[in-house]
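One such shown below:

_____
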Amino acid sequence: MIIHSAQELKRYQQATDKSMKILKKLFEATLEGATPQQIDNLADRECQKLGVIPCFKGVGPKNNKYHWATCISVNDTVVHGIPENEPLKKGDLVKVDFGINDRGWITDHCFSKSIGKPQPADQELLLVARKAIIAGAKLAIVGKKTGDIGAQIQEIIENAGFSVVKEFVGHGVGHSMHDSPQLPAYGQKGTGVKLKEGMILCVEAQILASQSDRVYVEDNGWTVKTVDGAKAAMFGYMGVGGKKEAIFLTDTRDWPLF
């Protein structure tokens, strides 16, 4: 989606502000002893309070619709984790992905958090993943291309000895959850779609604590896990393409990592 006026930007910010308020509550509830199912139920309640719809519910093929407000992925679950009833424990690395539909204005963003102080290896994964995805999101500038964003993320990740999942990509967002352009977290500078002013983007990536980027989907058709059991981190930021710099709509850059 491309917004064309300050009025449209203000309306979108109203939606992202609501989404951020809910995501903050989910972050605060992601604690030792809490279950992903409880966190997901909280998301449902907060959506009802604010009069918005959790936009993940109902997506997917006719014979396997997604029935939850959030995707909560723990440790070697990379993305699209179905919220389960198993309590979170110290040392778990949790990704919470969430979005809303606020009368046709869609949001999509994600945080990662360690339960308790992370082990050094997990802390490095979190720090590098966040650094890389923020660096990519900052390149949402008029005249840059989607390949510039992907190349920036990939370079930082692979220089640290980690890998980027190739099967899932960032994307445009607007009145639908997955809009053009696609935003792979890998690629070559100067390639891909040229970014325009006002383009709404969700810059996100799944980063693995391994040089292998191999993943598989469990039999439920949703849950994605690493083949080698490596942990994963994921961050997602919504932004607006600007003339000189990107505008962050869902700015969780300064949130703690545990």
